[in-house]
Design brief:
Structural class: mainly beta
Shape: globular
Mean pLDDT: 95
Largest sheet: 7 strands, mixed
Distance between the termini: 40 Å
Number of helices: 0
Radius of gyration: 14 Å
Number of strands: 11
Length: 126
């Protein structure tokens, strides 16, 4: 059964760090581009960053560059999002997503997410 499960969210103070995990099952993440998205309270969901088959990253939000780092652990079939120097505006539900339409989708340039995890809440507050 195909599944994505996010974890690692929680309450963190401004300037702190946390690592989110996206655990995949039923498909192999090393053959797919995997994206991270977030939805802040009262706002629309937005793309944050995407990691391709070759581990190249594409940032969709300028404000996270230098603070957010996405990585892939193929042995664990898992994708991480390391968040450093968190800011209050980072408060959101964070989702990982894959494009599981027919065929492999290796690259973030060939990526339309259609399969989502349940999300994990990140709250930045002092």
């Amino acid at each position: 059964q195909r599944q994505l499960v996010e974890s690692g969210g929680g309450l963190v103070q401004p300037g702190g760090s946390l690592r989110l995990s996206c655990q995949a099952s039923g498909f192999t993440v090393d053959y797919y581009a995997i994206g991270w998205f977030r939805q802040a309270p009262g706002k629309e969901r937005e793309g944050v960053v995407c990691i391709s088959f070759g581990n190249e990253t594409t940032y969709y939000v300028d404000s996270v560059k230098g603070r957010f780092t996405v990585s892939r652990d193929d042995d664990q079939n898992r994708v991480y999002l390391q968040i450093d120097n968190v800011k209050p505006e980072d408060t959101a539900v964070y989702y990982c997503a894959a494009d599981l339409t027919t065929g492999d989708h290796y690259y973030c340039s060939d990526y339309t997410p259609n399969f989502w995890g349940q999300g994990t809440q990140v709250t930045v507050s002092s």
